[in-house]
Amino acid sequence: MVEIKNLNFEELQNFVQSLGFENYRAKQIAQWIYKKRVKSFDEMTNISKAARKVLSENAKIDVLKLVKVEKSMDGTKKYLFELEDGNRVESVFIPEKDWNTLCVSTQVGCPVGCKFCLTAKDGFTRNLTAAEIVDQYIHVQRDVGEDKRISNVVFMGMGEPFLNFENVKKAVEIMTDKNMLDLSTRKITISTVGVVPGIDRMAKEMNKVKLAISLHATTDEVREKIVPLNRKYPISEIMAALRRYPADNIRRIMIEYVMLEGVNDSVEDAKRLVKLVKGIPVKVNLIPFNSYPGAPFKPSSKEQTEKFQKVLWDHNIAAFIRDSRGQDISAACGMLRTKEKCNRC
Fold it and tell me: Could you tell me which residues are annotated as the binding site?
């Protein structure tokens, strides 16, 4: 049984031909799945009943089951999905005034083990398929309605995208193909904790989408304590990879920096960050820490975060403080999944 959302358009054409159908059927099927968001082949009314029967016997459309939705007063919605093997992942819908963003997961759990991340506490289970990544978009778009079109996708949910490169790459192909989801490459951002081979590979194979780096510290000593993967890919190697990356002032690299009280939020840290990114087209996103029960860190104060931000602006580095969204729901990455897992226990 073929998971049809695992196929890019060329593969969909080959699949359709392998069933004995005309090539144009691929475009019809893609329109029904990605534009009209149908759940079954029976809904494809411009395809014959006989052809629909063959499709139903050889392929399936949805691979996720919606388990729970939490909605915040600010409009943010947190989704928990169950995969066919019983594992669960999260997505987050973030509405803005002029656009809507979806944060998608790429793995069940995460092997990186960042100390401030709740997802990391559950360990790593497996990579998501391209279909399981794309299906997050389809399910959420169905739920929020076509009048709230999701134009932006950020690969910043559960998992490290570059440790699932092939499936992430295919998901991006499906999301940006004009016959499929038809999203702009400029509206897709892939975030990595600093997997250097992945950065170099993205530079060659996916450089039309945006790159974000979860840096979170300015010295290897501190970063190794909160991001253990730094022992393999230290800050100097990450910065060298960013200098090789084909970025410019239009497509700047986003530096993500979670603000942890007394850990990485000093003025001295800000000054070191200025030196680290010198000569690299970047913008900096300062992220308030989303605490959770038993968290080993505290969020930096608003005052300290603004001091940090000022140092960056004083050196002509664009620095923004991310709004804390969904604070009245399970906002932290992995929090809804963990909460529901405890409820099941």
Answer: 110, 114, 117, 159-160, 191, 214-216, 290
Question: Tens of pLDDT along the chain (345 residues)?
Answer: 999 999 999 999 999 999 999 999 999 999 999 999 999 999 999 999 999 999 999 999 999 999 999 999 999 999 999 999 999 999 999 999 899 999 999 999 999 999 998 888 889 999 999 999 999 999 999 999 999 999 999 999 999 999 999 999 999 999 999 999 999 999 999 999 999 999 999 999 999 999 999 999 999 999 999 999 999 999 999 999 999 999 988 899 999 999 999 999 999 999 999 999 999 999 999 999 988 888 899 999 999 999 999 999 999 999 999 887 777 776 556 556 555 554 554
Active-site residues, by number, are 90, 333
Element (H, E) at 9: helix 9-18
Total residue count of the chain as it appears in this document = 345
Q: Which backbone phi and psi does 156 adopt, to 5 degrees?
A: -135, 15
Q: How far is it, in rounded angstroms, from Cα 301 to Cα 290? A: 13
pTM value? Answer: 0.94
Q: Which of 128, 104, 130 is nearest to 6 (CA)?
A: 130
Annotated binding site for [4Fe-4S] cluster: 110, 114, 117
Binding residues for S-adenosyl-L-methionine: 159-160, 191, 214-216, 290
Which has the closest alpha carbon to 140: 95, 183, 185, 73? 95
Identify the CATH assignment for 2-60 out of 1.10.540.10, 1.10.150.530, 3.40.50.2300, 3.30.70.1060.
Answer: 1.10.150.530
- Give domain 65-344's CATH architecture: Alpha-Beta Barrel (3.20)
Domain boundaries, the chain: 2-60, 65-344
Distance (Å, rounded) from C-alpha 144 to C-alpha 103? 14
Whether 223 contacts 216, CB under 8 Å: yes
Alpha-carbon distance values, 37 to 44, 122, 135, 165, 239 (Å): 11, 32, 10, 26, 41
Q: How far apart are CA 225 and CA 139, in angstroms?
A: 37
Q: Which amino acid is at 280?
A: I
CA 211 to each of CA 70, 187, 299: distance values in angstroms, whole numbers, following the listed order: 29, 11, 25
